[in-house]
Design goal:
Layout lengths: L1 H19 L31 E5 L6 E5 L9 E2 L6 E2 L8 H5 L5 H4 L3
Antiparallel strand pairs: 1-2, 3-4
């Protein structure tokens, strides 16, 4: 009787391991392709850096979601509705830090 139980547990465990490690059983978002790599989460980092920010024009109130550059600070932005040229306020490094919903990536990362 105990041999039968042990054999049953072994078969069920083996089946479970095969199913869980089968790439076809994973959802498309979980599949790892040849051009991707799974990166472990850094436990010291509390939030991810946002690369999108909604800029609000102070003159006309127009809002637009924009992708922020990660390698430079944007010093001038032209509102697509009223053509106002926006520049960072004194003390801010870029227009996203002044008029955006998120600070630029370099400020978010603390560099």
């Amino acid at each position: 009787m105990s041999n039968t139980i042990s054999l049953s547990i072994f078969i069920i465990s083996t089946f479970f391991l095969i199913c869980c490690n089968n790439p076809e059983s994973k959802s498309p978002d979980e599949k790892q392709t040849a051009d991707s790599i799974t990166v472990p989460i850094d436990p010291t980092k509390t939030s991810e850096t946002s690369i999108k920010s909604e800029i609000t024009c102070p003159k006309c109130g127009h809002k637009k979601m924009e992708e922020m550059p990660t390698d430079v600070c944007l010093l001038k932005y032209t509102c697509e509705k009223c053509n106002a040229e926006l520049h960072p306020k004194e003390g801010d490094c870029c227009v996203f830090c002044t008029y955006g919903t998120h600070k630029c990536p370099s400020i978010q990362e603390g560099s």
